[in-house]
Amino acid sequence: MEKRFLSDISEIEGKEATFDGWVYNTRSIGKIWFLILRDGTAMTQCVVSSDKTSDNVFNLENTLTQESSITVTGIVKEEQRSIGGYEILVENIVVHQLAQDYPISLKEHGTSFLMDYRHLWIRSKRQHAILKIRHQVIKSCRDFLDNNGFTLVDTPIFTANACEGTSNLFNVDYFDRSAYLTQSGQLYSEASAASFGKVYCFGPAFRAEKSKTRRHLTEFWMVEPEMAYYDLDDNMDLAEQFVESIVQSCLNNCENELDTLERDTSFLEKVKAPFPRITYDEAAKILSNNGADFSYGNDFGGTDETIISEQYDRPIMVHRWPADVKAFYMKRDNKNEKLALGVDMLAPEGYGEIIGGGQREDDLEILEKRIEEHGLDKKDFKWYLDLRKYGSVPHSGFGLGIERIVAWITGIKHIRETIPFPRTISRLEP
């Protein structure tokens, strides 16, 4: 028998079909009762009538519980008043398992309770919508890069060195030596870019920051393009095209999910290149003019990012940062040695940084000097320095945090809902 899915129900209107799924909820109006069936692809109303089914099937009204697993057979009928515009006139129901005492009800539950039951909470309509949009974000990232000449080159999770020092890394035993869980695949992608020209890596990253903000996780996912012969301006051009493509893809393919989340998409509809570009100095002036408690030379905090982004109706790129707050590999501005050719992209609506990147230092002697200035052991970067010995070229790249951009596109308040099973400083299960 051909498998049928509720997402394709419009294709079989007027026909008998069988669907596997779970009970989302039920309600009764006498000789008819209704069942909302979900199968992971969509939800559909099932109509159970006493004159269309056996007594055994009709009496399941008093037996079926939320999240019981069932198979429904019936005639598909168009009905604009029903969820999804169709309903199933039930002929038979087969029960596979009756769920007992499902812990998540329609009443309000606290965040801690819902996170304890995250393995069940992801079945809810809202969480399902968020994770479907996450899927679309990831798909559109890969589609854009694959269609623009990039090659996926995987980078290791275990590393002997760090992109930005080791203070925020997880140290693990690695046989007879220490290793770190990666915070970025960038250094390895720089090596790959010298082989393929344009590459990207996509995978989990880890930061041991003891942060309890709504924007941080200890385990998160990043997509990181790296391009040979790209300067900072080329890098920013790509970043804005990339983000525009992701947002427009979600608007075009996730209308139902955005409706479920009651997301005001007016800001998202304005996400079209070119994006505003301002220097760090110009951003600092915005903060000063708005009375922010900010000291020049510091990195931006969440409040600072919100103030800056509120001045614009689409993402904003802040470039040319004080070199002291950027990593050792950042190339300096040839017009001002105190500035690094870095760029952060800030999302509107107070969602903060979604991209961080910049142009990499391509001169061997300068890079060796930067490593020493940052107190790093040059021996750990021998292979990385080789890249500057053999065919070094100007090159750039950036990292886009999947959870950050999902939070913005979905309009949710806390990043923990953007990943199926979040890891924070206080949570390692489920």
> What's the story with the biggest beta sheet?
9 strands, mixed
Class derived from helix and strand content? alpha+beta
Give start-end ranges of low-pLDDT stretches. Answer: none
Q: Bin the helical content.
A: 25-40%
Q: What's the number of helices? A: 13
Reading the helices and strands in chain order gives EEEHEEHHHEEEEHEEHHHEHHEEEEHHEH
The 3D shape can be described as elongated
Describe the overall structure.
About 30% of the residues lie in helices and about 30% in strands. The longest helix has 22 residues.
Topology:
Elements: E1 16-28, E2 32-38, E3 43-49, H1 55-58, E4 69-78, E5 86-97, H2 111-116, H3 118-121, H4 125-146, E6 151-152, E7 158-159, E8 171-174, E9 177-181, H5 186-196, E10 198-206, E11 219-228, H6 232-253, H7 255-260, H8 266-269, E12 277-279, H9 280-289, H10 302-309, E13 316-322, E14 332-333, E15 336-347, E16 352-359, H11 364-373, H12 382-389, E17 395-401, H13 402-410
Parallel strand pairs: 3-5, 6-10, 12-13
Antiparallel strand pairs: 1-2, 1-4, 2-3, 4-5, 7-9, 8-9, 10-11, 11-17, 13-15, 14-15, 15-16, 16-17
Helix pairs in contact: 4-6, 4-13
